[in-house]
Amino acid sequence: MLTVATARRNALYCVAAFFMLSLVLGCGKEYRFIKAASFKGPRGISITFAGPVDEKWAKDQANYSINEKTDPDIYLRIAAISLRPDRLSVTITLEEDINQKATHTLAIKGIVSEGRNMGSAIVDVKKFYLGYLLSILMGAMIINNFVFTKYLGLCVFFGTSQKKSTAIGMGITFTIVMVASAMMSWFLYQFVLKPFRLDFLQIVVFIGLVSLSVQAVDTILRKVNPVLFKAFGVYLVLVIANCIIIAVPLILADNEYNAIESLMLALGAGLGFLIALFLMSSVRERIELADVPPTFKGLPIAFILGGLFALSFMGFSGMSLF
Amino acid sequence: MKARKKTNSELFFNGILNENPIFRLALSMCPAVGISTTVMNGVLLGTAVLFVQVFSSCTIAAIKNYIHPRIRIPTYTLTIATWVTVIDLMLAAYVPEAYKEMGIFVKLIVAFAIITMRLETFACRNPVGASFWDGIGMGLGFTFGMMALGLVRELLGMGTILGYDVLGFRPLLFFVLPAAGFFCVGLMMAIFNYMEIVYNRRKKV
């Protein structure tokens, strides 16, 4: 019992470490005099300066030009500009709603602060990056749960969801292998397959990488931590038979995510599988005691339960965070 | 392995009835739930699986004497991946619309348990000819399973078969919902179980 507890704690530390790393790397870069620029409401963009700016300069619409980064020719029209009393932040209101999914470029001409010219600045305005990462994570985990809304990994899902302990073990093992293999395949795709125009080999390369990483985790775990291996070793073989593990690298290759976004998606996919397994195993443990008609015993009733879960997960569809 | 050698027709029907991949072996459930909304999808994906199964079975049966037992699983995986790539590129070139509809599932054939299982249990111990027939049987069994599910879901959900309006109304719109795939597979399995129970009871009496 103690060994399982240690193993679980170690696995939790791993997950926490990955999350902290992404928090540190997730901060974007900013221009010197402009402290922050962000969307405010459906039509507004707010800019925070490092020092107080002159009111006459700030209220002049000709000093600002805004466009979507992908369309440099189309400038968005400004309806009004307001300056806060402390003269530290300006809110620009546009005539039309902003497409907040796109990155906007904001050019500010000759900033005047306390009579001194601070020069011009060009800043990118985009959605809070950490929030974007979090929305990828939550999206893969719950809103687009791979098991209940994309119907992947069902063989392993129904095979290992009979007992809670098995479900948790499988889920954690899967998450670790998922993150490791997704990062490797992202790296290989971006730096080897794409530059050499070998895209068509992606299936062969990804499945090879998955088998390789499973084998590597197996060997390393056996030598480094036999206790952990005893707890999770049995699930490693099953990981290869899970379609999610090959689906995630393919999705990453299609969507051109960067490293941190890929990490988030892989983590979300793994945790989502863990959640699905845990939910299902809790219900199946209860249904062991129930009086199920003989024709529905075993897999059929499990499928019906899966259908009920899928129906309830449909409630999350279309939700968006941040 | 077995006392009596099976004839080719027995191998062929084994895959379709006795060891039907979807309803009897309960393998490759993801596509059965995911894209069994229409008969056409079932036919297309089934054909793709059929080709991959037959080609990989024949390849493994042909080179089985040169594979070291310890690396046999990676060899199977790479063989399947190669054939899946071939089929994937061919479908993308010749039937682009249907390919788009099936989405990622064509590429995911590489992770279908049924193909690896047939290579492991059959193709690595039998000659090319027998493996060929076994592969065809398994592929057709999968196709029929997918088609049966697609038929039920398309008929009940949209009142059509293969896109042609048959009923003129929509009996149970619920079956078009993606989540209904689970219910459909569950109910089908229950029907198969029921038939088996009735059959066994008759045999006893």
Features:
heterodimer, A: 322 residues, alpha+beta, Immunoglobulin-like, four-stranded antiparallel β-sheet, three-stranded antiparallel β-sheet, 10 helices, elongated, B: 205 residues, mainly alpha, two-stranded antiparallel ribbon, 8 helices, globular
Condensed summary:
The complex is a heterodimer of chains A (322) and B (205). Chain A has 322 residues and is α+β, with helices and mostly antiparallel strands.
Q: Can you give a write-up of this model?
A:
The complex is a heterodimer of chains A (about 325) and B (about 200). Chain A folds into two domains: about 1-25 and about 130-315, no CATH class; about 40-125, Immunoglobulin-like (Sandwich), CATH 2.60.40. Helices cover about 55% and strands about 15% of the residues of chain A. Chain A has helices at about 1-25, 55-60, 130-145, 155-160, 165-195, 200-225, 225-240, 245-255, 260-285, 300-315; strands at about 35-40, 45-50, 65-70, 80-85, 90-95, 105-110, 110-115, 115, 120-125. In chain A, a hairpin with a 3-residue loop joins strand 1 and strand 2 (about 45-50). In chain A, helix 6 (about 200-225) crosses helix 8. The two termini of chain A are about 40 Å apart. Chain B has about 200 residues and is mainly α. In chain B, about 70% of the residues lie in helices and about 0% in strands. Chain B has eight helices and two strands, in the order αααααααββα. Chain B has helices at about 10-20, 30-35, 40-65, 70-95, 95-100, 115-125, 130-160, 180-205; strands at about 160, 165. Chain B has a two-stranded antiparallel ribbon. In chain B, helix 3 runs parallel beside helix 6 (about 115-125). In chain B, about 45% of the residues are buried. The mean pLDDT of chain B is about 85. The interface of A and B includes residues 148, 149, 152, 251 and 299 of A.
